[in-house]
């Protein structure tokens, strides 16, 4: 549900609009500029971070059950290979914001460290995340400083500056081409564009997010083994440190977001805020949110808690299913709303999708053992058909 709140911007608008407000095909109001600020603070990266932590925990949880039945790590590798295939289908045929492919590849790499102690996994994950923060900060900071800085005073810098401007223009032009296809072309034109213009994007995304995804998986794996998700830590300490992480990380991210807004939302300024500067505060917020959820969720109870839990148990189906629904909502082969809605209106679409997730997941799981895609993934992993009905 949280990931959709971030992804919706690149589902109903050109992909560049995910981080850069000026890429919207409709005017981005002052109120929506402030929405961008609060989205960067509360949503962007944090939901992906939570997903990655839980993915790492899930890797080890699956293996514990597999080992208890006499299976080997190869079963998890097979499971991840199928996930990668789902991801590629998702990318090329449904929506190119897929994360499943590089989660699958990162998960396969994480399996190389599965035999380490939880402490070593945690340390390795933290060191990897720090290395990523330094790398992303240096890369995107350099790009921002060169592209948005004063006019170059030498030929070499002028050439680099021109290349950055050219790359930004090419990205925005691709967004305009995508808009035309989604508004005037056919679904086959859309798929052809994904293959022609973005054939190697899954590999590029893998390299771009490697120093975030893999470290967070290792941290999630280690925290699971240490009892973080199952009451192994004091609730009082979890709430205290969770609140500190959330507030401290949120304050730093707010400062980054306000700086980007004050700079006029340049292409590279928005990208640096999104990918570079918010990397370190993001992990404090991600761990803070996770700690607060773990400490408060068991006592929450009630109908909403049950509905959210059921939506989580069918997360794979909800993730891919939402992309299919949005493909129909926004493409001219469906409701033809691509590029027609602003940020505030896209949030309303998000809320409507949340209501659908909450409405179907619980009744389905009361009748069936797994979500539809969870069941298919399980059958493919084990190479046999499992009963679906309860």
UniProtKB/TrEMBL annotation:
<keyword id="KW-1133">Transmembrane helix</keyword>
<dbReference type="InterPro" id="IPR052529">
    <property type="entry name" value="Bact_Transport_Assoc"/>
</dbReference>
<feature type="transmembrane region" description="Helical">
    <location>
        <begin position="99"/>
        <end position="116"/>
    </location>
</feature>
<protein>
    <submittedName>
        <fullName>DUF418 domain-containing protein</fullName>
    </submittedName>
</protein>
<keyword id="KW-0472">Membrane</keyword>
<feature type="transmembrane region" description="Helical">
    <location>
        <begin position="203"/>
        <end position="228"/>
    </location>
</feature>
<feature type="transmembrane region" description="Helical">
    <location>
        <begin position="240"/>
        <end position="260"/>
    </location>
</feature>
<feature type="transmembrane region" description="Helical">
    <location>
        <begin position="280"/>
        <end position="304"/>
    </location>
</feature>
<dbReference type="InterPro" id="IPR007349">
    <property type="entry name" value="DUF418"/>
</dbReference>
<feature type="transmembrane region" description="Helical">
    <location>
        <begin position="123"/>
        <end position="143"/>
    </location>
</feature>
<feature type="transmembrane region" description="Helical">
    <location>
        <begin position="35"/>
        <end position="63"/>
    </location>
</feature>
<feature type="transmembrane region" description="Helical">
    <location>
        <begin position="346"/>
        <end position="365"/>
    </location>
</feature>
<feature type="transmembrane region" description="Helical">
    <location>
        <begin position="316"/>
        <end position="334"/>
    </location>
</feature>
<keyword id="KW-0812">Transmembrane</keyword>
<dbReference type="Pfam" id="PF04235">
    <property type="entry name" value="DUF418"/>
</dbReference>
<feature type="domain" description="DUF418">
    <location>
        <begin position="223"/>
        <end position="383"/>
    </location>
</feature>
């Amino acid at each position: 549900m949280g990931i959709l709140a971030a992804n919706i911007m690149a589902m109903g608008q050109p992909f560049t609009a995910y981080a850069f407000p000026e890429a919207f095909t409709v005017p981005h109001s002052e109120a929506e500029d402030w929405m961008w600020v609060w989205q960067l603070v509360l949503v962007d990266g944090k939901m992906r971070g939570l997903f990655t932590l839980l993915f790492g925990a899930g890797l080890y949880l699956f293996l514990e059950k597999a080992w208890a039945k006499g299976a080997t790590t190869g079963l998890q590798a097979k499971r991840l290979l199928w996930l990668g295939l789902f991801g590629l289908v998702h990318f090329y045929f449904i929506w190119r914001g897929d994360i499943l492919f590089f989660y699958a590849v990162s998960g396969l790499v994480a399996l190389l460290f599965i035999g380490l102690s939880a402490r070593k996994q945690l340390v390795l994950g933290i060191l990897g995340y720090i290395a990523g923060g330094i790398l992303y900060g240096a890369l995107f900071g350099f790009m921002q400083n060169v592209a948005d800085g004063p006019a170059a005073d030498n030929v070499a810098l002028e050439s680099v500056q021109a290349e950055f401007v050219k790359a930004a223009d090419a990205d925005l032009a691709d967004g305009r081409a995508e808009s035309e296809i989604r508004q005037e072309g056919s679904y086959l034109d859309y798929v052809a564009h994904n293959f022609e213009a973005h054939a190697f994007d899954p590999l590029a995304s893998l390299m771009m997010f490697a120093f975030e995804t893999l470290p967070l998986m290792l941290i999630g794996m280690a925290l699971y083994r240490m009892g973080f998700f199952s009451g192994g830590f004091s609730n009082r300490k979890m709430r205290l440190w969770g609140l500190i992480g959330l507030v401290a990380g949120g304050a730093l991210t707010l400062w980054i977001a306000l700086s980007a807004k004050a700079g006029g939302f340049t292409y590279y300024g928005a990208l640096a805020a999104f990918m570079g500067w918010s990397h370190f505060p993001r992990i404090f917020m991600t761990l803070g949110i996770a700690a607060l959820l773990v400490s408060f969720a068991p006592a929450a109870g009630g109908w909403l808690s049950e509905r959210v839990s059921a939506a989580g148990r069918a997360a794979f189906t909800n993730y891919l299913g939402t992309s299919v629904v949005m493909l129909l909502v926004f493409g001219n082969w469906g409701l033809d709303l691509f590029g027609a809605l602003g940020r505030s209106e896209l949030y309303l679409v998000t809320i409507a999708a949340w209501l659908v997730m909450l409405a179907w997941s619980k009744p389905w799981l009361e009748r069936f053992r797994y979500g539809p895609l969870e069941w298919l993934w399980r059958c493919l992993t084990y190479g046999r058909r499992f009963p679906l009905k309860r």
